[in-house]
Design brief:
Length: 274
């Protein structure tokens, strides 16, 4: 990723994209910008998807949870920066500086990076390796997501694990086929003006995850109580951010999440939030 990012930045015309990406333009700052950034957190941090619950269930009791959170923040931010340095300059290079092309959503990776690899020495090999790694990243994320579903079905229906895994895998494959064809033979299919992949990305990332996150905050803050979470963190180390955590989970996060949800739905309906 670092090599590809450096190559993208060094392409002719890419510096305009780097400037657009890294230099603040406060004339374009708005409520929508803030809400969009907050909404992106759900996807990049794997929040409200069951992934953190799945990974957390495998952690030992002596693991410093607060330290682990800080590590996640650092690595997530670093990889997001690299991704931006790969995509944004590429858009400026191959679209002639058309900023509107940045609105293409998740499909940008599949639209722009192949063009970058096409200009590289041994770009076919680099592209194949890159997308193979993307496949592995998707598979590992899918495994963590499916583990949550498998566990729930096992508990509720008392199925054998092999049968449950097979049912979940077939269901996920059936749901994934339309998305994979959305930029191919089904590229003409539009839902609310979005391609199939972008539509599912919108529904999951901008609608369902904020709803789940809001319910999680209410459940933890007012039903389970924050003390249960704080006591779990304290099993391995002092919880330095305990007071801040309680305030955020009970008051700040629910308000922000509702704002994100409303903004996302309105934007999806074509109603621009100032």
């Amino acid at each position: 990723s670092i090599v590809i990012a450096v190559y993208c930045v060094c392409m002719p015309g890419a510096l305009e994209g780097v400037k657009y990406y890294l230099m603040p333009d406060f004339s374009k700052f708005s409520v929508t910008t803030v809400l969009a950034a907050l909404g992106q957190l759900f996807y990049s941090m794997s929040l409200a998807m069951g992934i953190m619950i799945t990974y957390g269930s495998y952690m030992k009791k002596d693991v410093d949870l607060e330290k682990s959170v800080h590590q996640i923040e650092i690595f997530d931010t670093g990889f997001a920066l690299l991704a931006g340095l790969m995509i944004v300059p590429s858009v400026f290079v191959f679209s002639g500086g058309d900023e509107s092309q940045l609105q293409a959503g998740a499909g940008l990776m599949f639209q722009m990076l192949p063009k970058v690899f096409n200009t590289m020495w041994m770009g076919g090999v680099v592209g194949a390796v890159f997308f193979l790694l993307v496949l592995f990243a998707a598979l590992t994320s899918s495994i963590s997501l499916m583990e949550t579903v498998v566990s729930i079905l096992q508990d509720k229906l008392h199925w054998h694990r092999q049968v449950t895994c097979l049912v979940v895998a077939v269901g996920a494959l059936a749901l994934g086929i339309p998305s994979s064809l959305g930029y191919g033979v089904w590229s003409g299919v539009q839902i609310l003006g979005l391609s199939i992949l972008d539509f599912f990305d919108f529904i999951s990332n901008s609608v369902l995850m904020p709803i789940v996150a809001f319910l999680t905050c209410i459940f933890v803050g007012y039903f389970v109580k924050t003390k249960v979470i704080c006591d779990e963190v304290k099993l391995s180390s002092p919880f330095h951010g305990e007071k801040l955590f309680v305030v955020i989970i009970k008051y700040v996060a629910p308000i922000c999440i509702v704002a994100i949800l409303v903004s996302s739905v309105l934007n999806g309906l074509g109603i621009v939030v100032i």
